[in-house]
Amino acid sequence: MQRFKSILLCVLFISPFFFGADPLIALETQEKVKTESAPVQFTLDEIVVSASKVEEAIRVVPKHVTVISGDEIRESTGKSIIDLLAKEAGINVRGNSGTDKHAVVDLRGMGDTAASNVIVMVDGIRLNAPDQSGPSISSVPVEQIERIEIIRGAGSVVYGSGAVGGVINIITRPPGGKRSASLYSSYGSYDTVDARAAYDDKIRNLDVALSAGYYDSDGYRDNGFLEARDFGAKTRYDFNDRITFELSGTYYEDEYGLPGPVRREDIDSGTRRVLTNRPDDSGDTSEIRGGAGVAIDLDRWGTLMMKRGYRFRDNHYVIGFSPLIPRGDQEDEIEEDTRSLDLNYTKDYTLFGHAQMIQLGMDHFETEYIREEMPNGPRKNSETDSIGFFINNHWSLTESLLLNAGARHNKYQGRFRTDERKFFGTEPLWVNGGTTRQEWDNSAYALGITYSLNDETSIFASYSTSFRIPNVDEFAESEAGLRPQEGDHLEIGGRKNFGNLMAVTLALFDIRIEDEIYYSDINRNFEDKTIRQGMEADIKIYPTEHVGLWGNYTYTDARFDSKDTIVPLVPEHRAAAGIRWQPIGNLGIDFSGTYSGSRYDGNDVENNRYEKLEDYVVFDAKATYDYANLTVFMGVNNIFNELYSTTAYSEQYYPMPERNVFGGFRWTFL
After folding, report:
1. Separation CA 445–CA 428 (nearest Å)
2. So what's the pLDDT on residue 6?
3. 198: closest CA among 618, 666, 524?
4. Helix (H, G, I), strand (E, B) or coil at 328
5. If you write DSSP's letter for every residue of 142-196 in order, what string do you get?
């Protein structure tokens, strides 16, 4: 607790910004004339988030949440979702190829298990796979994103298993409601081509949005290529004033190289770090994702939303290619078929003269999963079924005091079978193995409070629990008695706006997880409790209508309780800052820098076996010019050519790209 006390001292130092006299009153008065015409208006009611699967003002959410708007996405120096998220407080991203493919988003220091402890949603459908491969972030094109919501901390009451470090909620562009078309194209280093086309139309009560894209890059490293294609469609039909139907679908396919790691002695060499000793390892993926939903306004009886989702994934890959064996005989294959049903009922009502809300929800997930390991490996068969019921209440005790309370009960069933390949004569056949069954009942609770001191200042606190059920491949290779992990989460913080000039958010968190699931030589539960404590601070400043500044800092102390060692792959300090400058009306210049502290090797649980990954600072810049319906842009990432890595296991490193450039255009017509 000594470390957490030191964080509390920071709160005492900063608390005058939230509770005392405003130290910027004089500055705010001096800048009043300048900021009255500023394009940004900070209000706690302005941004809505879907932390509870229903849109709500940010002031009622007792958590640290961030919304990245469509404009911020287009202006950002980042080229991908991973680039965007890497600049946000509380987020540590890791990659092994320099692209979104196989990248991992870590919220609040989950470390090596972040792929299973952070949920990524797109339009209400989970991107997380039922195995340990993590969410397929590369299947979501940045150009199609309307906004990204980052909800930090436990979300198991609403989202169920796996919402431990937080939830990343990606909302793609809705049907526009009028006829329009757009073209996007960019070209950059490593012979990287990114092209997209989109078309929107409205036919009576039917809104339609179509999009298609192509991406091709040789990649930063040898055999680091990625080629991808996608097509998406979204429709919305207003049956009448009270009933709306939605239908969406996405097809995505890619081919990619798997360059593997490089040795520690090569990581600081600009020529050797790009090489690979796995020139023939590669894979391909096809994914179909879609959803159908209906929203019914029941007038004074509330609102009912129902959504049916599906996700089919087919993945082939070769790791450790041997020229002595035909490629088809050493290609592993994964087939996943996941179906989901989501029901949400909400009702707003008035009690004691104040607005209240009750939410009832149910979600159901079914997954069939098969993994064949070649040439002589087993075949893993899994069928899982999970159903959860939850209740969530928002009570306005006074005009300034809001209380949130929720609870979930979840029932899980899993059936697992390992088949072996046997030869009958010269013909190989699969022989079914015995079936293992697992059943668990899990519960989660949340209690939060938000107090508004005035229209520009609010404080919040929350306590919640989380759980994570083992993935299908964790069951496939686990010691006896593998069980779900459970966590307790405490968070306190505040939000403060200074008119149009500045907005500040500060949050402290304490996470304690029992039986955390991890992999060493086999999947098992940690005997030691893991504790994660830290602080996140966000700031945005608009001193004039032509200049915007932003910055954030994250301190994370993630360690094993009794051993007092640090959780691998979690940096203690992270910070990011940037500036947006419009020297003339149509020209915007963005510059940003990201710092990440050192971290322990992914296989160094004892903190004494391998060298730590070094800290790094990366700077990016981008210029954007708008003329009528045409936007032209160009940028440079990693301006000062920092040689760095975000991931290493047993001193086998995965280098990130050096300096690279890009440029392109966006044209909207019709």
Report:
1. 51
2. 45
3. 666
4. helix
5. GGGEEEEEEEES--HHHH-TT-SSEEEEEEEPPP-SS-EEEEEEEEEGGGEEEEE
- What SS3 class is residue 87? coil
Strands (E), 352-434: 354-372, 379-396, 401-424, 427-431
- What residues have CB less than 8 Å from 327, skipping those under 6 apart? 318, 321
Token look-up 């607005």 returns 355
pLDDT tens per residue across span 377-422: 889 999 999 999 999 999 999 989 999 999 999 999 999 999 998 8
Number of folded domains in the chain? 1
> Which one-letter amino acid corresponds to residue 400?
S
Please say whether the beta carbons of 363 and 343 come within 8 A: yes
**Statement: residue 77 has pLDDT above 70:** yes
Return d(Cα 249, Cα 506) in angstroms, integer: 38
Structure tokens at 343: 């029901």
Segment among 16-25, 177-186, 461-470, 558-567 with least mean pLDDT: 16-25
* Pairwise CA distance, residues 577 & 590, whole Å: 11
β-pair partners for 101: none
Q: Which is nearest to 445 in space by CA: 416, 475, 465?
A: 465
pTM given for the model: 0.91
Question: Taking CA 518 as the corner, what is the angle to CA 514 and CA 521, rounded to the nearest 5 degrees?
Answer: 140
Q: What is the pLDDT of residues 302-326, one digit of tens each?
A: 999 999 999 999 999 999 999 988 8
Q: Which domain holds residue 272?
A: 2-669
| Buried/exposed code over 518-529 (b: 16+ C-beta within 10 A; e: otherwise) | beeeebbbbebe
Q: In 3D, which of 451, 556, 425, 433 has the Cα closest to residue 152?
A: 556
DSSP-derived 3-state class of residue 81: helix
For the chain, the average pLDDT equals 89
Predicted confidence (pLDDT) at residue 5 exceeds the cutoff of 70: no
The CATH number covering residue 530 comes to 2.40.170.20
The pLDDT tens digits for 575-602 are: 999 999 999 889 999 999 999 999 999 9
Q: What phi and psi, each to the nearest 5 degrees, are found at residue 231?
A: -140, 135
The residue assigned the tokens 């959504």 is 307
Nearest CA among 333, 80, 299, 277 for reference residue 186 = 80
pLDDT at 1 over 70: no
Is the distance from CB of 127 to CB of 137 less than 8 angstroms?
yes
Would you say residue 2 has pLDDT above 60?
A: no
Whole-Å CA distances, 465 to 89, 486, 491, 621, 637: 22, 7, 12, 40, 39
Question: Which distant-in-sequence residues (6+ apart) come within 8 Å of 618 by Cβ?
Answer: 593, 594, 637, 638, 642, 644
Question: Is the backbone peptide bond immediately before 375 cis, with ω within 30 degrees of 0?
Answer: yes
Strand partners, 295: 244, 305
pLDDT in tens, 497-541: 998 899 999 999 999 999 999 887 788 898 899 999 999 999 999
Distance CA 119, CA 326 (A): 38
Beta strand segments in 4-117, E: 48-49, 56-57, 65-69, 91-94, 104-107
Instruction: Provide the pLDDT for residue 44.
Output: 56
Distance CA 280, CA 331 (A): 12
Q: Under DSSP, is residue 71 helix (H, G, I), strand (E, B) or coil?
A: helix
